[in-house]
Structure formats: structure tokens, C-alpha cells
Amino acid sequence: MRTRSQSRRRRQQQTPPVVVENFDLEEPIVDQNIVAMADNRTMAQMLQAPIEGYEDAIVVPPINANNFELKQPLINLVQSNKFTGRQDPHNHLRFFNKVTSTFRHPEVPNTSIKLLLFPFSLDGEARDWLDKEPPRSILTWDDLVSKFINQFFPPSKTTYYRNEIITFYQKPNETFNEAWERFKGLLRQCPHHGFLELHQLDTFYNSLNSNDQDALDSAAGGNFLDKMPQEGLAIIESKSKVRYSRSRANDSRVSTDAPLSTSSPSNNSFDMQQIAASLEDKMTIKMNKMLNEMKALVVTTPAPIKAVEEVCVTCGSNHHFNHCPLTRGGNDFPVFHDNIQQFQQTAAVGNFLQRNQPLD
């Protein structure tokens, strides 16, 4: 049986001894950070502007090609359509890509050429944006496009155009061609809308009025939505090429002298619209012609009318017989006044006989 003293002695033997190092408290302690911050420059030198931080935001990879340089005509072409921050950034990128694609070098990637030329295509607010980007923060062409689009086409704008596409509808006085062009414009202004071609065609078809829907169904030989997306797009493009305008009398589609074509059973609805538009255009031309003729009549000065001279049948003077002094009351010849009608008849008969008297 172990005693308490033996257990204590056993625990002391198992505990490792504590080693205390002998520190020299008089040795000075040096702060390495203070040493690193030491500067031997004078105060005037320290107050001078730094020479770092002036690098461009765009990092162009090293170009080792011989005899490579950007031609001034190419720079001028890029500068001819500068982006100031107010235009559509997608259209600017399309134009820039088209211009830079015309210049190629066998030893230089096209993306490097774009990185070199892109600053020349900016001005105003857009140029200020690029200058404020951190130095060496844009390493590739994709980085530049991403930052450029997000700056001048924020997510709120994307949401707006997506809603415009989803809620698209044909306006009451809008033709088929005008509606299709407006719908394509919305898709073009927001190329990252995310809608598949199927959803685009379905949205446009359901936004049309009943007449244009019937026209597409007739052209498709049944239900338009039963066609493949590529076939449906071809049908819409074919229909949109038939341009007609209700506000133009000299439209190339309408001939005022040519007879109206008859509609076929497979395209009856669409041809009826053409006939109605043709009739309306012809009536407009006729109305304009009538208005011009009426204006000409109003403006034309009428020819002067020669006054009719009156001859008194009583005395032969230049006045009306009612104003003749021989027939008015109070004169010396009451017989003429009282029997003026008989006198007129007698005088007329006498004149007739005198004119028709045979010559001796």
C-alpha cells in the first residue's frame, strides 16, 4: 500500500524541470520598422511630387514584332466616332471592332491592337472614366469590355430593356415592318438580354394584331408557332421586306396607274391589307389634287365683267324707263305716264315695221 508521501515523490519525478533563460535586460531593443522608415532625403525632396502612379490602366502585352507601328489613318478612323458616355456603348464596340478588324499583323494579336487603340476612341466623360481606373488594372481585352459595359450600361438599364422586350406590343397605327424593326432595335440595344431565339419569336408573334398574326399563319401554311425557329425568322424577314406606308403617296410599293392585284387564298389576309393601303393612298392623291384645284380657283382673279348699258324705251336716253322724266308724275306729258305700257308696245311695233319695210 502506497503512502501519501510516496505518491507525491512519484509525481515530482515525472514533472520535467523548468529551464529559465538568463536575459540581459540591459541590451537595447531595436524596432525593425523604425529602421525601415529611415529616410536620408531632405524635407524639400520629400515634399516633391512622386514619380510613381502614372501608369495607364490598360496593360498592353509586350510586342516583339519588327517594323510594327499604328498608322495615323487608322487612328484617325478610330477617332472619327468617339464615345463620350452619352451614346450606346454596344454600338461603339461594334464600330470599334469593325475598324480594328481591318488592320492585321502576322506577329501581333488583334487583341493587343485593340488595347492600344481603344483609348483613342474615348472622349469626355468616357475618357475621364478610363483615366480614373487604377494603374495596371486592365490586363486583357475581355477585362476592358466588361468594365466599359458595366460603367456605361449598368444592370438597371439591362433590367429596363428586358422589361421592354417582355412587354412588347404592336402599336395601333404601327405597320408590321415598323413593329419588327422596333423589336429588333430593343434586342440590339441589349445584346445580353438572355432570351433565346424561340422566346423572341414567341414574344413578337403574340404582340401582333390579329391581321398580322393571320398573315404569318397564312405564310407558314398553318400555325406560325409550329415552324422551326429558323423557319419562323425567315418568314418574318420575308414579310418585313414588303414595305408600305400610309403617309407616303409615292411609295415604291404602290402604283397609282397599275391595277390592284388579286389576293390568293394562301395569302388573303395580307393581300387585303395591301389593297386597303393602295386604296387609301389613291384617295389621298385624289384629295390632294382636288385641294390644289380648289386653291387655284380661289387664287385666280376673275375677269372683269362689262356693265350692261340701259336704254330708255320712252325717250331713248341712257337711263331706265322708270327714271325717265317723261313718265314721272308732274310732267307735261301725262299720256306717257298713264299709258306707258301701251306706248312701249306701240313703239316696239313701229320699230319693227320700220326695219322690215320693203325698199322702193
From TrEMBL:
Residues 117-209 form the Retrotransposon gag domain. The keyword Disulfide bond does not apply. Residues 252-269 have a biased composition (Polar residues). Pfam families: Retrotrans_gag. Residues 246-269 are annotated as: Disordered. Keywords: Nucleotidyltransferase, RNA-directed DNA polymerase, Transferase. GO terms for molecular function: RNA-directed DNA polymerase activity. This is Reverse transcriptase domain-containing protein. It comes from Tanacetum coccineum.
